[in-house]
Structure formats: structure tokens, C-alpha cells
Amino acid sequence: MSQDAVCQDAVCQETVRQDTVRQDTVRQAADQDAVPQDAAPRPAGDRVPAVVGDRGPAGRVGALVVAAWRDLLGLVVPVACAGCGQPDVPWCATCDAWLRGPASRRDHDAGRLDLLEGRTLLPVRAPASYAGPVRHAVAAWKDGGRADLDAPFRTAARRTGTVTAADVRRVLGPGAPPDGAVPVLVVPVLVVPVPSTAGAQRRRGRAPVEVLASAVAAGLRDGGVPARRSRALLRTGGADLAGLGARARGVALAGRVRVRRGTAVRDRAVVLVDDVLTTGATLAACHGALVGAGAHVLGACALAATAPPGAGRADGPARSVAPVVHGRREAG
Ligand SMILES: [Zn+2]
User: pTM value?
Assistant: First the structure.
């Protein structure tokens, strides 16, 4: 579900509303304190400052004022856990346990990925169920300006990438099927985020799923698979998918996802990344576009997946939490 999931839950909407107020206030403060750059025309031949990004003393003072504003606003509009509302913490340990599930296969529960007889279009792994605090937090992250959730979501996505690395190595590595069905693929693996509509990206000011894609690429590298993020796919208009059923999602996406012009994907190994797996319609459309251009889609990672219809329950937080050590910095 790459597009515009809007949680209807009252608690969730209130969290998003508070976060939006906070974000708007910070933005206004930043606007008011911004020091005009190049207010006077620079004489011809004037030297460009040697240090790129150094805004000078006035700019640094401006940045300090903005930082002070942010601290002050932390008192005026207090931070609360995006999952449960606990005050003074952006994401509490109890809610974080929901993200520490085993990154298991979820594709068998996604109707649009079903190829019958137990086979699916591609393996999809996700550490969490799209329920409870995860559902609230994803909504706040995508549409409430809660970019402070990047860190815990990145950690979960990175771990999912590492688990997926084992799947990828089975296809690419020495133990790959010898029947020639899979040609020699070019590495690094391309980690491709599902594309947002231009409207959604404008509204959010960024594409949150790209944060997850970078983390999955880092996780694949942790697992010994060379990988890098690639914005290989483009969404060309069409309706947002929130609230649509499986069939309507497929119709809304038909012909709307394509490989970006100038992006070489032929014979490349690809891992797709989405935030939430629901029906699988989005991943199926992305898979179709990439395979049509000659790529080999080996799997997908998501942050969370909806529970199958009739399951009666959603997974809760992980019972035992294994320590996850990520010492290496992401290389790219
Ligand atoms: Zn919480």
C-alpha cells in the first residue's frame, strides 16, 4: 500500500493532527528566522565562498534560533509516542516491540500475489502486522510529518533486508538453480521503492518509502549481497489507492507504473520495497513493469503487512527480542 493510507481511528487522527500543528509551527518559525540570502546583488567577479554549505555567521545564528525554537516547541507541543500516545518519547519501547517480529514471508496472505497451488508472484517479507501502534505510527510518519520515526522504521527495514539477503543469495549465489532458468544477473542488486503519485510526494514533501529502501539496501549488504537503492520506477498519475479493494487497486494501477526512462534494469536483480503490504496490487504492478523491461524481481520487503481476511487476530509485539547489532554505516 504505497499510497496514502489514512487511518480512520480517532486516536490516530488526533496524533496526526497534533504532529501537523507541530510541524507547521516549526516551519513558520524557520520561515520567520530565515536570513535572506543574496539580498543585495553580488558584484561581478565576486568570489564564491570556498566552503560549500557554510551560511556564514548570520546563517549559523539563524540555525541556532531555529534549533532553540524547536526545543521551545517541544515544551509547547509535547512529543508523544506515535504508536500509543505515551508522552515525551517519539516511539516507546513497547511499541517498538511490534517492529521486532521475525521478518517472515507475508506474500501468501496477499490476494493479488497468489498464483494458485501455493505459489506466489514473489516472496515478500515484513517484520510487523499493520495493526495497533504500527498502524497509527505509519499514518503519522507518512501524513503527519513524523520524520522522527525514520530511525526505528529504518532499523526494522534494515533487518528485513538482511533476512531477504538469504533469499537473494539462494538465487544469485553458488547454490543457485543449475537449470539455467535464472541467467547470470548483474550486481549490485537494485533496491527499488514503489513509486508514489506526484501529488502524494508534493503533499508530503518527500517519499517516505525511499527511507525504507535505503535501509533495505543496507540490510542486504549486511547479509553479504551488494545492493543499492534505485528510483527505477515512476507512477504516472492515477487515483490514490486508500480505501480501494483488490480489484479496484489493480484497475487504478493498470499502466500507471513504468520504468523511468534512461534507467537500465535489463538482467538486473531487483528487490522491491513498500511500506505496507495489503492486497499486493502495488507490488504486482511494479513487478510487471520491471519484468517487462527485462529485470528479475527476486523479492520484496515491507515494513508491515495486513493480516489475512478472517485471521481473527493480528500479530502483537515480538515476545522475545533478539539484539540486533548494526555497526556499519550505510555506504550509499
Ligand atoms: Zn508507544
Answer: 0.72
Question: Mean pLDDT in the chain?
Answer: 77
**Secondary-structure class of domain 93-305 per CATH:** alpha beta
The SS3 call for residue 100 is: coil
Closest C-alpha among 26, 7, 157 to residue 82:
7
323 C-alpha to ligand 1 centroid (Å): 19
**Euclidean distance between CA atoms 162 and 166, whole angstroms:** 7
193 C-alpha to ligand 1 centroid (Å): 27
Distance CA(119)–CA(117), nearest Å, equals 6
CA of 137 to the centre of ligand 1 (A): 9
pLDDT band at 90 (very low <50, low <70, confident <90, very high): very high
Q: Check pLDDT > 50 for residue 319.
A: no
Mean pLDDT along residues 202-206: 90
Specify whether the CB–CB gap between 211 and 229 falls below 8 A: no
